[in-house]
Specification:
236 residues; mainly alpha; 2 strands; 69% helix; flat
Length: 236
């Protein structure tokens, strides 16, 4: 069960006001003690009331005097820098509430115009009963949405360009490696062909020197077999 919000106003009933004073005073002293212990700071509290002949202090009279003496040694400008009274405190609260109200009204207006924009988009036209104020606010909202869309498009375009620039060197390296491998294989094949021609030339020279006689073995098998033909049966 949630606690009921207390109205910040003077309590007219005497007994209720006295009970509230005792309860709040106890809580105030507890909070000051916790603040000093948790944060390691010097703090004191002095509470006067019509219900007690002497003021209640925390942590002790000597502790209060020590904190007050430290405060008085500060320059006057520093003493009043963050000092507030009841009037200034309420003024700050009012200004803060006004800012929150202004922001909430702006959010509500944007939601109202957004809903109106989608209604007109669904209908495919703008109704004639719209006021100039609503029309100006609607135009402003559409302009903001278009700017947001353009910003998103620019971000996506930049990301795509950066990804393309990163991928391009990788593709170039892959193509270069493929070309290098291709050149290497062709050079090796050319070396094998040159060796084959040299061996055949040596075989032909040996055959001519021997006068065509003898049973010379052809290099790498029969030439006709290499060319895909059957050997001539009438030639030995």
């Amino acid at each position: 069960m949630t606690r009921k919000k207390v109205k910040l106003a003077f309590i007219v009933n005497d007994s209720a006001r006295k009970a509230t004073f005792k309860k709040r005073k106890k809580g105030l002293m507890k909070k000051v003690s916790e603040l000093s212990t948790l944060c390691g700071i010097d703090a004191c509290a002095i509470v006067y009331s019509p219900y007690d002949p002497q003021p209640e202090v925390w942590p002790s009279p000597m502790g209060v005097q020590r904190v007050l003496a430290k405060f008085r040694r500060m320059p006057e400008l520093e003493q009043s820098k963050k000092m507030v009274n009841q009037e200034s405190f309420l003024r700050q609260r009012i200004l803060k509430a006004k800012d929150q109200l202004k922001k909430q009204r702006k959010d509500n207006r944007e939601k109202e115009m957004t809903q109106l924009m989608f209604q007109y988009l669904s209908a495919g036209k703008i109704m004639h009963n719209i006021s100039m104020v609503d029309l100006n606010d609607l135009a402003w909202l559409i302009d903001q949405n278009l700017k947001d869309i353009n910003r998103r498009i620019e971000v996506l375009t930049k990301n795509a360009q950066s990804q393309t620039q990163v991928a391009a060197p990788a593709v170039t390296d892959a193509v270069s490696k493929i070309e290098d491998k291709g050149q290497g294989s062709h050079s090796g094949q050319g070396f094998d062909i040159n060796m084959d021609l040299m061996q055949k030339q040596n075989w032909f020279m040996n055959l001519m020197n021997n006068g065509g006689g003898g049973n010379e073995t052809m290099p790498f098998g029969d030439v006709n077999q290499q060319n895909g033909f059957w050997p001539n049966p009438f030639f030995h």
